[in-house]
Write a structure and sequence with these properties.
333 residues, globular, 10 strands, single chain, alpha/beta
Length: 333
């Protein structure tokens, strides 16, 4: 029987022979104690209002599941003046000391790499970082009204992300990196595919090339509608599009890609509620496995960009139902 890691790697290959559907995030062990993560996101606390290293204000009320950037205290209200208002955090100066990496290296060393891949996490991608600084409406307008200044800001963010990538790869040597950047809503992209290709895609080329050149698998999280740019995602070297919503035409994407990129997600997060029933959760998971599993190169999971559910009863049922499907269809749970 293939290990979770082996089964995942077979799923990635265009001509691979996985024994069963990969079960959610079973194939990875996240290591999230690296100094870059701590430096960039370490002060976010539920119930508090905080500022990150860019100066963005984050609100996290007790009644809210996640922290969100405030648009009432923008770092960069006018992109034409971004060089005066935006101070790019110096990751190299603050995160290069080898002593800072000891905890992350120790955590990675504990992972059974025959069973699982060591996964690093990179939240807040190029698009997200820009709209956290400017506000999403301002960013969309700036792309039309101040394209040169907006491109300069995006390039500065892209270089910051490249340094983030380089620090992770050079110091921790993860097997896979999950890189977050939501490029759309549930039913459409935030900007046109042509504009995305002009402004956003170029910022990922050096970053993702560095991962590939160093043998790191790329998992890009975008729980959004990205159907129109899947060929671009392949072009960037993305191995797994994680977070795929079922508003995308998943069977058509599977047919189009023909194994050139694996897609992961499909399970509607509406099941992640305090009152969701076991019957409801199992029905959603079974529907997704039956609809998309036969198309290949598909990993069923809730669309979140890290393992786990908001409500603790959900994930165990999700994974148990995937295992039951695998036992029934493939003879292996």
């Amino acid at each position: 029987m293939l290990t979770p890691k082996q089964n995942f790697l077979e799923t990635l290959k265009p001509d691979g022979k996985p024994e069963r559907l990969v079960n959610d995030y079973e194939f990875v062990k996240p290591v999230m104690v690296d100094p870059v993560h701590r430096f960039t996101r370490g002060n976010r606390k539920k119930g508090f209002t905080t500022k990150d290293q860019w100066g963005t204000t984050y609100l996290w009320p007790e009644t809210q599941m996640f922290a969100f950037p405030s648009e009432d205290d923008l770092v960069c209200p006018d992109v034409a003046e971004w060089k005066e208002t935006v101070k790019v955090p110096d990751l190299v100066a603050n995160c290069s000391d080898p002593a800072l990496w000891e905890d992350a290296k120790a955590a990675a060393a504990k992972v059974n790499r025959d069973e699982q891949l060591v996964m690093s996490f990179m939240g807040t991608g190029i698009w997200e970082q820009a709209h956290n600084l400017m506000g999403i409406s301002n960013l969309c307008m700036a792309l039309y009204e101040e394209p040169e200044a907006t491109m300069e800001l995006l390039e500065a963010i892209g270089e910051y992300r490249f340094q983030y990538t380089k620090l992770l790869v050079d110091n921790l040597h993860p097997d896979i990196i999950i890189s977050h950047d939501d490029w759309g809503s549930k039913y459409s992209m935030f900007i046109s595919p042509a504009m995305w290709r002009e402004f956003i895609k170029p910022q990922y080329v050096k970053m993702y090339n560095y991962m590939k050149d160093n043998g790191v698998l790329i998992m890009h999280h975008a729980d959004s509608w990205c159907e129109s740019i899947v060929e671009d995602m392949v072009d960037l070297g993305i191995d797994v599009w994680q977070g795929v919503l079922n508003t995308n035409d998943i069977p058509a994407i599977q047919k189009k890609l023909n194994g050139r990129m694996t897609i992961m997600g499909g399970i509607d997060s509406i099941i992640d509620r305090p009152d969701s029933t076991e019957e409801e959760i199992r029905a959603e998971v079974r529907k997704v496995c039956e609809a998309f599993g036969p198309g290949g190169h598909f990993i069923p999971s809730i669309t979140y960009g890290l393992p786990g559910s908001l409500y603790p009863h959900v994930t165990p049922i999700v994974m148990d139902e995937i295992a039951k499907y695998n036992k029934e269809v493939y003879g292996i749970g």
